[in-house]
Amino acid sequence: MQLALPRESAAKYHSASQRARVATEEWGVENLYCLKCTADSLEATRHGTPAIDFHCSKCDSPYQLKSISRPISDRIPDAAYSAMRNAIVTGNTPNLFVLSYGMESWKVSDLILVPSFAFTISAVEKRRPLAPTARRAGWIGCDIILGRIPPDAKISLISEGKPESAASARRHYKSLAPLSKLTLKRRGWTLDVLNVVRSLGKKSFTLADVYKHSDALAALHPDNRHVDPKIRQQLQVLRDLGFLEFLSPGNYRFR
Predict the structure, then answer these.
(1) Looking at the domain assignment, is residue 141 inside a domain?
(2) CB contact at 8 A, 105 and 149
(3) HSE (CB half, 13 Å, CA atoms) of 188?
(4) Mean pLDDT in the chain?
(5) pLDDT at 47
(6) What predicted TM-score, i.e. pTM, was given to this entire model?
(7) Among 179, 200, 199, 203, residue whose Cα is nearest residue 189
(8) Cross-strand bridge partners of residue 205
(9) Last residue of a domain, one of 174, 198, 229
(10) How many domains does the chain have?
(11) Under a CB-based contact definition with an 8 Å cutoff, are residues 159 and 201 in contact?
(12) Residues 84, 129: one domain?
């Protein structure tokens, strides 16, 4: 996997954002690969295709690419809130590549992939409507809150300028695949509880540790008034999916 972004095509544009878009998409054609199957390249979609920048010709998996000229943070600007929410609800969210590059070096520094089934409504935050004076007055965009997606579901392909092997990235993706079998509603709770458990920063933890975050989970799921029983249920789901093991009543450990 090459780290240098192509310069020739991008040089035709005056806008920095346009140069970055052209360069990163061209880089993607040469370097990105499918994590769901063994395809070693992805095909670019027709320019203007909503939300999808690449697709796999072998398994037809869709991919979107977001590029930023700063370190990857917890908040990534996305498109219209209604469109993103509808994509999640209908199960049409593409896999998301988030790419960070250096403006001076013109090289890729970090690249992660968030699988399509790792997106939940709680990971998307509505932005304020555009002002009445704006060209698209009233338009409502959204941000993807990467901090609300468990670290397990953020697959590293390049870290600090060092590419990971495709085999390693695909093994990581495969380990997450059981999540795709859950319904959207159930998966949202499962991912949110997994994110809370990861935030504890412990290999082993107790049920009481997770209960301390009941209020935060209640805020993400305001329609559910039985948060503590839901937490216990989701810990069982995470055990069944292979993320956790039970040590004794109220005591858990990551596999």
Answers:
(1) yes
(2) no
(3) 17
(4) 94
(5) 80
(6) 0.91
(7) 179
(8) 252
(9) 174
(10) 2
(11) no
(12) yes
